[in-house]
Amino acid sequence: MDQEKEIQNLSSEEQETLSEPLIVFENVTKKYGNNFQALEGVNVSFNEGEFICLVGASGAGKSTLLKLLYAEDFPTEGEVRFGGRPTTKIKRRLLPYYRRNFGLVFQDFKLLTNKTVFENVAFALEVDGWTTANIQREIPGILSVVGLEGKSDVYPHQLSGGESQRVSMARALVHRPRVIVADEPTGNLDPKATADIIDLLVKVNEIGATVILATHAKDVVDQLSRRVVTLQKGRILRDEEQGGYLL
Amino acid sequence: MKILKIYRTFREGLKNFVRNGWVSLATISVMVLSLYIMSVTVSLGFAGRSALETIEKQLNISIYFELDVEEARVLEIQSELEQYQEIASIEFVSKDEALDRLLETDGENEDIRKALDEIGTNPLWHSLVIRAVDPSQYESIDATLKSSVFANEIDSINYDRNKAVIARLNMFLVALQKIGLATALVFLMISILITYNAVRLTLFSQRKEFEIMRLVGASNLYIKLPSIFEGMLYGLVASLVTLLFLGLSGYYLLPLTEVFVGEKVFYSILISYWWIPVIALPLLGIFLGMLSSWIAIRKYLKI
Questions:
Q1: Residue B229 reports pLDDT greater than 60
Q2: What is the value of pTM for the model shown?
Q3: What residue numbers bound the domain in which B254 lies?
Q4: Which chain B residues are Cβ-neighbours of A96 within 8 angstroms?
Q5: What is the spatial distance between Cα B36 and Cα B52, in angstroms, rounded to a whole number?
């Protein structure tokens, strides 16, 4: 019982301190080893429902910042808070439940090659304990949202890059997470596929999900004209409400 | 929901098990070998003990009295001995009876016939056949008889000969069990290592799956369970195969034991105790498999 309550606290909105934004990075420094500093004194916060572009050259610390958010890693100094709760305070065994607040999309798709499109998406619901009947009901809908109707039984190697990324989008969206974290989702895609993915992210954001998009695609950022946070060598260089891609 | 998750993780474990193919086969073979050696050792020890007990039950001490001791005196000694608690029964065998028995069993033997004819009179002794309540008490009974007031009326006590045979048999059994258990232990260690290795291979080939499972928020247990189930499956299948082999061995070897022991001792053991290996082996196998995969997971699966 106790565990179930704790799990609920990790995602329930009522429990949160409403006095601060959904996501807060406070004086966050992340060091790897002794000499490499990926992030240095980062102070930034993201509101619920925002669409944020995280830009910067390779190695600027974008991925590190995102990893600290979904608790794949933890800050060396300072703290990352989600809904007012520092990630370091979450018990290790409860981390998986915390991660279900996020839908993650990566440059390399991270699809299971021995599973079909349907199974790849279903996987995210299976681990969440959904019944088979509910999974069967839910997936066709999400596949049509990402434009993959009729591709249910296809294996990832039979898909184009754009289609693969849409599968991984479907997987990230299907359990309706509060935050979509997209780390260079268009890095491997052609302009048309890129536009499709960005459109999807915008749509999801309109429904209410917070979207954090890390990218170094200039035209994408310029076109979106949303909030842009620019990282350089582990520090925040700029934070503009309606920015463009400047380095 | 819990049952659903167990079903799903079990299904994944089963898939790993099937996909591993040759590795699974090798793992199971070594495990079968270990379990078989262990089972045979344990049952041999068990059967040996039962055989020994049967022999001990037939054991007795015969006191042969000097030829000049009268039947009445022997009966007097018998009633005196009957008061000892350690003694279960005493049978008086008169010299005539002893002769009858000898003729009955060895009457056909030419040499004995000739010898008896030569002597002309009954050359045998009056004797008392003593059975103890507990076989271990023969030694003390033997000692008591030798130091009793009628010790000088006794010609011989035949216990010493039996004692040597039983002691040798016992030593043989103990040695057999020690060697068998040591061998079984070595093989059990090997089978744990082999199973551990099989699970490790699975863990290695599924690094990507584990990463993705974590990304979509699978709980640690959900990630670990398939490998645990995989290990358990190795153990379960191995123990079932072992049971099959044990059954076959029993079927073909039991008739041979009859030749040696001359009685169907082992059949009765089999009939009363067959369920012990049938329950214990699968449990042991599953436990071994679980243990192995648990070690592999602890070492190689970083969550």
A1: yes
A2: 0.69
A3: 2-55+166-300
A4: 214, 217-220, 222
A5: 24
